[in-house]
Structures are given as C-alpha cells and as structure tokens.
Here is the input.
Amino acid sequence: DTEVTQTPKHLVMGMTNKKSLKCEQHMGHRAMYWYKQKAKKPPELMFVYSYEKLSINESVPSRFSPECPNSSLLNLHLHALQPEDSALYLCASGPGAYNSPLHFGNGTRLTVT
Amino acid sequence: GENVEQHPSTLSVQEGDSAVIKCTYSDSASNYFPWYKQELGKRPQLIIDIRSNVGEKKDQRIAVTLNKTAKHFSLHITETQPEDSAVYFCAASTSGNQFYFGTGTSLTVIP
Here is the structure.
C-alpha cells in the first residue's frame, strides 16, 4: 500500500562495487527526494529534484550520483562507497507546493562491506 | 538555515496516559509543520500536520498546537496505546521543497 516504491529493499555491496537504488511514484508529484537515515537519527537530506531538475544538493560526496529520468522515477547511483555510508536510504516525493507533506518509500537498507 | 530542536529524546508513558513532544524552530518564515511516526524498520509516515495560519489541529487521539510567536509546536497523544510506540519526528518547512527534521523522540508505551 506504499505509494512510493523503492528497490531493492536490502543491498550489500563492496567498496569497489557499482550499484543503483531505484524509486518510483505515481502520485503526480513534481518533487522527489533522497534522504539518508542512520539508526535512531532523523532523515538527512541528500538531494532534491524539482520538475526533473536537481534543485538541492546538500554537499553530498560524488560517490553518490542522483538521476531523475522522468517525473515518476528517481535513481541513486553508488560507486566506491565507504562502510560509513551504510544506512537506510529513503526516497520521498511531494507536490513541491507550499504546505504539503512528503511521502516516503520504505527505503533501501544498504550495507557496505 | 532552519534549526529544529525536539524534546524529549526518549519518553516512556503508561498505557492510557498522555504523551507530549515539543519542537522549536528558528526561522520565522517556516509555515508548515508535519509530524511523522516511524516504527522500527519502517518508513516515516505522516500522522498530522499544521499550517502557520492555524493554532491547533486535532485528529482523534492526536493533536498538534502551534505558537508562532514563540516559534514552537507540540504533538499531544491522548489515551496512549502500545501501538503508539515508535520514533516521532517533527519537521518545519519554508519553501515547500525543503524540510528540516527534529532529532526525534523515541516513545515507549508500557502496557
């Protein structure tokens, strides 16, 4: 019943691997987000796409590369990650309008070995 | 940028009692304040929100109050139940695209 779908649910990767996280929403939202969340901490904003254009990059290291192929899809490409990058990666979408909430996906639990 | 503080970080209450979580924000331009509940291993889910032109909003056992002058807002849960146990995050938004989250409150309801 989740309106924002993320795949995969779990991902284990080595520090030399390249992988991608995927997110899809069909609510007609114009803004899509990537958040990183460590255990018992609040979601930490990484990127925001508005109308398919990158509008916010919170000084995220280049080993994380976002992509927004269309208004419904959002990817996060991962390369040469570090063990400290292990976290729950949450995708969210929103209308991008004032006074409107974010809708989160179930997240991808990433472990970097 | 906006700074949102949240207290307490942990809260234990007996089933049936009330729980109150408080947040303060720094940017007077913030105009939208959602509250999210996150159960262990699950996604944050919106439980209630309030806009800056409203002082209070209620939805069954959950209510939120906003004091714009003092720049603080609070979540009130009455008649708590074990299924209310979770981490609760407040947030503040100014532009519609950027949300600033509080540090979270881990609520435990003791049966």
In short: Chain A touches chain B at residues 2, 31, 40-43, 45, 48, 50, 55-56, 90, 94-107 (CB under 8 Å). The CA atoms of residues 17 and 79 of chain A lie 6 Å apart.
